[in-house]
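Residues determine shape. Take a concrete instance:
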Amino acid sequence: MWEYTDKVKELFLNPRNAGVIEDADGVGEVGSMACGDALKLCLKVNDEGVIEDARFQTFGCASAIASASALTEMLKGKTVEEAEKITNQEIADYLGGLPKEKMHCSVLGQQALEKALAHYRGDPVKEEEEGEIVCECFGITDRQIEKAVRENNLTTLEEVTNYTKAGGGCETCHDRIREIIQAIRAERQPKVRPRMSNIQKIQLIEETLENEVRPSLRQDGGDIELVDVIGNRVLLSMRGACATCKASQQTMKNFVEAKLRELVWPEIDVEEVPS
């Protein structure tokens, strides 16, 4: 038996904002009766881009009703830009958590929100964005699985089923789901960088400073000079306006060091030395 939080029970027994908005500015419909969960989300947006009202209709379990109700409560008063950033995990957190087997209900809410906002903006849904059906039992596409895996850092078939329902029926899609998980995990593997001599490292540092760093600093009357390289320590000196700038340390770490770590070596530590 699943354990539900008091918030889930409250919004299931007394859901907020159930119903439709007849003159809705955005409508999103996801799921299907075949898979056991379906959700329709309606939004009313004012001229300033603020969501004044949000209502839902759903066919599903207690978690589906509570998740949809929670989402409408979260949306009211938010701008469209703020609403776009709501994740399925935030919906679950609003409820105080969901059983792992019911996380797909929060995902359904996020998907309905994305479609409602796309409808509000007038964005057409392109067929290629829908993807290919992987799970025939529940009509789940490869794009939906990929999105759930990436956004929720899923690593197992069981987790994918919990978040999307994919694989929860006849099981013939299990191998394909595992392939998707493996492909995404491979993308996340850190790139193996070739070993380089200290001379090669210094040359690459100089090139990066010249091509990626100096142009930005010179726009504000500043410059930078490479003083020394000791292992992964890179000693640099600010020149011109940058030498007296109070934000030089922030520039050194957040801009210069970040560029060198990205383009030269991930373990580089930048140190500013007096000019």
